[in-house]
Design a protein that fits this description.
single chain, alpha+beta
């Protein structure tokens, strides 16, 4: 967050974490660690290995991967296994062959999965007792700079793929709170128990009724 603020100040543009007319209640988590601690029944959503295996995507623990295994289909993707202990795209790599893999095979708490060559998107859900009450979907620009996009398109008409909604309904049947799901095509890559960018996209709509309703529904 500090880097974002420094860059915004340097470029003389509005900070994405700036002041808004209305904010979320303090009981609605903004960061992954507090969200993880507050929801012991849903710790599994931060296990990226569980996320891939729940969708039958080839994956596993990196330190258990045999670099000489001829059944491995490259490219693969490696990243930290636990989402609440990592940030951004740190230690995320596309691996094209076993020589590339050899450099990282001993990194602790890492996982691997099939590389998903598809455009990324994400959805913020507001959930109450396992029911999706509201969603806001963010479509990413086709052009990507490694892991960064040129722009995000936000519209009330944008919807997540049905498979994403089905996964949420299946695995969070009693959950109440904010939920962010990131996916490529219709394959989930990460799940967090908080809104994207600390809820700044939602707050920047200027829809005070929406923020008040979220506070009243999941902020208790």
């Amino acid at each position: 967050m500090i880097d974002d603020i420094l860059w915004c100040n340097f470029l003389n543009i509005k900070q994405i974490y700036g002041n808004f007319p209305i904010n979320f209640m303090d009981t609605i988590p903004q960061y992954d660690n507090p969200a993880f601690k507050s929801q012991p029944n849903y710790h599994f959503v931060y296990d990226k290995l569980f996320i891939t295996q729940s969708q039958n995507i080839p994956s596993g623990k990196l330190n258990e991967l045999n670099t000489n295994d001829l059944s491995i289909e490259y490219p693969i993707f490696i990243k930290p296994r636990w989402g609440h202990t990592s940030a951004g795209s740190k230690d995320c790599y596309k691996i094209n062959n076993k020589n590339d893999l050899q450099r990282y095979i001993t990194k602790p708490n890492m996982m691997w999965s099939t590389f998903i060559n598809a455009n990324e998107a994400m959805t913020d859900f507001i959930m109450k007792d396992g029911k999706i009450l509201y969603q806001l979907t963010y479509e990413y620009s086709p052009k990507q700079h490694v892991f960064a996009d040129d722009w995000k398109y936000i519209s009330p008409s944008s919807k997540p793929p049905d498979k994403i909604v089905d996964w949420v309904n299946k695995h969070l049947p009693t959950y109440t709170g904010p939920l962010n799901v990131q996916y490529r095509d219709d394959i989930i890559i990460e799940v967090s128990l908080r809104f994207a960018r600390r809820g700044s996209y939602l707050k920047s709509t200027g829809n005070t009724s929406l923020i008040q309703n979220i506070n009243n529904t999941i902020g208790d």
